[in-house]
Amino acid sequence: MAASHMRPTGPDEKPYEPRHSRAEEARGYAERRVKQESRRRRHIAAFIIAAVAVALCVVAAGHGLMKNEGKQPEEQNTTAAEEQTTDETEDTSEYSTGLPNDGRIVMTLAGSADTYVKRGESYIEGGCYAHDATDGQITDKVTASGTVDAQTAGDYTITYTVSDSAGYVATATRTVHVVDEVDGGWDADGIAVFMYHDVYDPANPPEGATTNQNMISTTSLDEQLQWLNDHSYYYPSWAELAAYIEGKHSLPERSCALTFDDGTQGFLNLAIPELEKHKIPATSFLICSDADVQDKLSQHASPYVVFQSHSFDMHRAGYTKKGHGGRIFDMSEEDIVADLNRSAQILKTKDAFAYPFGDVSDIAPEAVKDAGFQLAFTTQYGLVQPGDDPMQLKRMRIFGTYGLDSFTGVI
Ligand SMILES: [Zn+2]
Q1: What is the domain range of residue 388?
Q2: Ligand 1 mean position, distance from CA 359 (Å)
Q3: What pLDDT digit, counting tens, does each position of 197-206 carry?
């Protein structure tokens, strides 16, 4: 297989369109749709006018009332003309709402935009997330179209479409490659899900940043992202990873997923531009009770960042003082389910959850499953492997103070 086929995020392929191009594409689509609809309505109106006129002539002739023929069709014509005017008024309003669609809808494909399927297995639909400037998270309104014949090698296209309450339309596409082989082979020893927290600018480091293991400089992050692209890494969707854990789906050996906990300002302001520069998708685990959570979602919506749950309000100390002291130990199964559902109402997804502080009480995995989440991550160190409990997955913590060698050594 050519190297370019395993370079979903390489410089010469553009799996994700920049936001503006996407907006233009969506606008073009909306405009075309409006014009087509307008043309169709006019044809129908013209047909009705002609049909009514003919029918009236026939009826009038049959009753010997030809003297009235001029009047009745005229009335009909007026009605039809009014109808047409109404149509045009509608068209104009649709047209004007379609025009200023300047990136208000941001679509985020789950995982790599170039998806790989081992021939003979099933295509796993990873989905697409969406955020709208007015409606907020509209991921639950995204529809997917297109088919993949996973028995036949080739390239297939899946198109995702979403419209907001004002009628703006946005689309995104995924190319699915059904192949027998991938560069580097299929994975046989586990997939790394990296765990980061905060990010800082080395030219202006906050106090203690350079010795804080939870903080990584943009320079180090940039090096790591560049290395992943240089080695043609693949980024599975959470759905693909879930199928991999079940032993039903092959992933390229060079696969990994990036996660950043807590939705810090450093991540939002400094890491997202890095991810966009390298065109690498990542997941941000957000604490949904944060007062500014909606601002974070709207101001930092990105084609490369998916926001998932870090709980609604479990990211604080509890009374029991077990584990790392998180309040999850004080909560009943019902409490946990209710908390997670509250976070999902905000995020409009239940694809992944990260336990605050990595604290997992005895009842927690069952509660997360009951709440309907697909995957849940701890802070335990290790790879994700087939047969793992999807409600207690390990991650590879990336220490901010380590060099590139340490990063490439663990992958
Ligand atoms: Zn956290």
Answers
A1: 184-410
A2: 10
A3: 999 999 999 9
